[in-house]
Structure formats: C-alpha cells, structure tokens
Write a structure and sequence with these properties.
Chain lengths: ~300, ~260
C-alpha cells in the first residue's frame, strides 16, 4: 500500500503587481510505499519544503493531488497517523518543552507518549525549561519529539538533521532506524547525501519543481557505468581538459572521469586530436553525489 | 465534536500561557497601570471636579491601553506565528484550522478581560479614595471589555491573511472610525448622499459601533445612551461574526 501518493503536483503563487505568477512546483510525482524510508533530495529552492507542506495540508496545490494512506492530505482526518517536523522549527519562546508537547498532544493522539518521546530525543531532563533557553539543535530535537507524539504510522521530516552536531545527527539517525524497525514509514528531505545513502530504501530527486528521478538508491547509482581514462602526452605538454566529464592533471598524466560509454568515446576522440595517448581506462561506479549533481544539472530531462 | 472543543481549549491555554509570560503583555499592562496613576495625579489639578476628571481620564486611558493590547496581542499571536512558521507544526496536526482561530480569539478575549479587571480594580480603588462611585466605575470598565474584544476580533480577521504591519494599521483605522460612530450617524442623518445613501448607511451599520460600550456618562449619574443588554448582545454577535470571518479567511491561506 502507498503511504504517500503525490501526482502531478503544481503550485503557483498569486500574481504580483506585474502580473507574474511565480511557479514553485511544476510537476512533482512522489510515491512512498508503506514501511520504507524514502529520501527527498533537491538543491536549495528545488521545491522540497513546498512539496512537504502541501503534503501535510498547510498549503494547497494549484493542480495535482497529495494523499496520505489514500486520503486527500488537506482533510484533517488524513493526518491522524502523521508526524511532521518542519525545516527550521520554531516554537513560542516562553513555553517549556513539556507545555509544547502537551499542546500538540491535545491536538491529536499522543498524550500518553509525551515522556517517552522526550526521553527518545534526549530532552527529558530539560522538559521544564522554556524554549528560549534551547539551542538550535535542541529545538530541532523538540520538533522531532512533536512529530513522534502518538506513535505515528508516517513520519514526514523536512531536513531533520540540519543544525545538529554529530551526536545529535547520530541520535536522529538512531530514532529513524528504530521507528523504521517498528514499521513506520518515513519520508525525509536532506541535503546531506550521506544520510540519504545510509538510511533510505528509495529516493526521489526533484529539480526546479519537477521530479527528475524516482526509484531505489541502487537504481540511481547502479544503472550508470562511469570510466576513468588516463592520458599521457608524447610532447610533454598536457592541455586543460575541456571535454565531457571532469579532467585534471597530476604529474605527467591527465585523468579524465566520465559517466557513460558515449562520453568515453567523445573523450577519446578529443584526446586523439590533442595527440594524447591512452595509458589506461578503468570502469568506475559514479558516487551518489555525482549522480545527483548530474540529475540536477538536467541529465535526465 | 469533543475533539474540536479539546483542540480549541488547547490553543486557548497555549496562547494564554504564552502571553501572560511575554514582555509585550506585561509591559502594556504596566503602561496601563502608570496611565491610571497619571490620571489620578492630573485629576487632582481640577479643582472641585477631581472624581469626575479621574473617571473620565482613567476610563479613557484604560480604553486606549486595552485596545492597543487587544490589537498587538492578537496580531502578534497570529501574524508572528505565521511569519516565524510556528503555525506550521500546529496546522499539521489532525484538527481543522478553525480550532486555531477560535482558540486564539478566546485567548485574546481572556487577556482583554484580565487587563480590564486589573486596571478597572486600580481605577475603582483610586475613585473610592477620592470618595467617588467605585463599584459603578469598575462595572463600567468591565463593560468596556466588549470594545477590546471587538478590536481583538478585527485584528484577528486582518492578521490571518495580512502582514502584522498591515493588520495593525487596518485595525487602528477601524478602531478610530468605530469610536466616531455617533458622529458618523449624525453625518448620515443630516447629509444628503443621493444614490450613495443606501451603501453609506450599510457601511455605517457594518462598521463597529464602539461608543455603545462607553459608560462614562452612567458613572457620572446619567442614563446610559443605549440599553446595556442590547449593547452586550451587539458586542457578542459582532465578535462572533469577526471570528467566523477570520476562520473563513484563514482556511484559504497557504503557509509556505
């Protein structure tokens, strides 16, 4: 069963005084199977937060649909099993962590889980402190605690690791692993690709408000075969590389890395025109980061 | 149905807790207290009319401070929560947005009533010291809470879809116009507006009529200008209508 189904999502803002309507989302498609951890990846301004805010019902799409366990997400009842933590969470500074959790627990299920979630995010000892005394990282963990209230079936987290120190990041990773082991579906956005690579089963990549890849991490990284070619020059001078892929000179060798067979053929042709000879060619699997950068620069469009 | 009441209560309790600890509310209340004390000092300068001057100045100062408090607390509670994205986590919970608007409106009403009780008690004590009608003064200040409640409702209706500056400006304009309702009635009665007569009358009736809640003359021993029951019903209905408008407007707002 699909925990999240987003189809053809578009979002435009109201026209400004010059009649222009800024477009935030063009065509977002995102499906998350129940019980999986799904990563949402994209550059700044790609539309990750807008997508998640439409998904949790705080904004409405211009076109398209967003559903949680088969129900339109803007219906309050659809959010009963949902825990959401936004990017850069903000809470009333004069309230304590406990009061904030009590407020949110009264707005849904979870009153009996307040102490448990405070312990889970390591804030139990500070539960009676006002939020004004919390660091950014502690506020981020409080935001996660709010999302965990009431044992949700689905967690939607917008940049849950941002602003956290290494220990805090590890804590959040452990919480997500533990919840996943209990069968909770998790969708989270992140700029930190190591977190995506470590935690996610599937991933959706968005760029400029459009889905450019959706599938397993394996298919994202594994369906491409890269190559590293090493060239030497009989004349002793090596040109600056201006062909496909990335090139760099180390010592008396020019190292060129490309992502596909086609690019390799093109690189070999360019090398021949410069009078370079091939000393070695080896196959390499491109790193996740490289694949994502390529996707975001328009490779799949 | 039970869940909506629980949610409204949760929003109300959260907002009241938030504001009674805030410097904004405490600061405005302290300013009100100082103005009431200043009214007593100024009243002493009016030879033979000390009590009347104290009641007039005290009630006018309290009305001004409570209106400012109602507007700023309400706008801060909504516009700031939207601007800082505080509201996103609240709206993502499985309850409708109405609960947020009604809960925050009730919190504003609570804070207005608390301010009127505190400042009204101060003024009544001072009036008693000068040998004036202390109880009537306290009742009059408490009755003037309707004005603060309506101002809070206007602020809420604007704040849910406007920036805090715009909401504050529009609320201030309606407060001033609402205070001039009797002058507006006189203008309509004496002037000739031709085809604009009907829209002008409709507009005048739609604007808040805040002078209904001013019982200063009653404290001085005159009969109140309007029926107190009718004025109370008007205040309650007008506030309820404003809350409903705010709820409708907020329901259509995207928080991005």
């Amino acid at each position: 069963m699909l925990a999240i189904a987003i189809a053809g999502l578009q979002k435009s803002l109201v026209a400004d005084f010059r009649g222009r309507r800024p477009v935030l989302l063009n065509d977002i498609n995102l499906n998350v199977e129940e019980g999986t951890i799904h990563g949402l990846v994209g550059a700044n301004g790609a539309g990750k937060s807008t997508t998640l805010r439409i998904l949790v019902g705080v904004a409405r799409p211009t076109k398209g649909t967003a559903a949680i366990f088969g129900r339109p997400s803007f219906e309050p009842a659809a959010r009963t099993g949902l825990g959401f933590a936004p990017d850069m969470a903000s809470f009333p500074a004069t309230l304590t962590a406990l009061e904030i959790l009590q407020l949110h627990a009264a707005l849904g299920p979870g009153h009996d889980t307040i102490d448990a979630v405070l312990r889970e995010v390591d804030l139990y000892a500070r539960r009676n402190d006002p939020v004004s005394r919390f660091s950014k990282g502690m506020q981020q963990r409080l935001s996660l605690a709010v999302a965990l209230l009431g044992a949700p079936r689905l967690l939607v987290l917008d940049e849950p690791m941002s602003g956290l120190d290494p220990a805090g990041r590890e804590l959040v990773r452990n919480v997500l692993r533990a919840r996943h082991a209990q069968g909770v579906t998790i969708l989270f956005s992140s700029h930190v690709l190591a977190d995506i690579g470590e935690l996610c089963d599937t991933v959706t990549v968005i760029d400029k408000g459009r889905t450019v890849f959706a599938g397993s991490l394996q298919s994202l990284v594994g369906d491409a075969q890269g190559h590293r070619a090493v060239f030497a020059s009989s004349s002793g001078t090596l040109p600056q590389w201006a062909g496909p892929g990335h090139g760099g000179i180390r010592g008396d060798r020019l190292y060129v890395e490309v992502d596909s067979d086609v690019d390799l053929e093109a690189a070999l042709g360019i090398a021949r025109t410069h009078g370079l000879r091939v000393t070695s060619i080896e196959s390499v699997r491109p790193r996740l980061e490289e694949r994502l950068v390529n996707l975001m620069s328009g490779e799949h469009r | 149905m039970k869940q909506i009441f629980v949610s409204i209560t949760a929003h109300w309790a959260g907002a009241v807790r938030e504001f009674i600890r805030s410097k904004l509310y405490v600061g405005l209340l302290a300013a009100g207290g100082l103005m009431v004390a200043a009214a007593a000092m100024l009243a002493e300068l009016s030879l033979g009319e000390t009590v009347n001057a104290l009641v007039d100045l005290g009630m006018a100062f309290i009305a001004l401070v409570v209106a400012a408090l109602a507007a700023t607390v309400t706008i801060s509670s909504v516009s700031s929560a939207i601007a800082t994205r505080e509201v996103i986590v609240l709206l993502a919970r499985p309850v409708g947005r109405d609960a947020f608007v009604y809960g925050r409106s009730l919190a504003a009403i609570t804070l207005v009533l608390a301010a009127n009780v505190i400042l009204g008690t101060m003024l009544a004590i001072l009036v008693a010291v000068f040998g004036g009608p202390a109880f009537k003064t306290f009742v009059a200040v408490l009755f003037a809470s309707f004005e603060g409640i309506i101002v809070a409702g206007i602020a809420m209706a604007f704040a849910v879809r406007s920036s805090s500056v715009l909401a504050a400006t529009l609320t201030a304009v309606l407060f001033v116009v609402g205070r001039m309702d009797e002058a507006l009635d006189t203008l309509l009665a004496r002037g000739t507006f031709g085809p604009l007569e009907l829209p002008m009358r409709a507009l005048a009736h739609g604007l808040p009529q805040l002078s209904r809640f001013d019982l200063t003359a009653w404290v001085h021993g005159d009969a109140p200008a309007t029926s107190l029951w009718w004025a109370a019903c008007y205040g309650l209905l007008y506030s309820a209508a404003l809350a409903a408008i705010a709820s409708l407007r907020f329901g259509k707002r995207d928080v991005l």
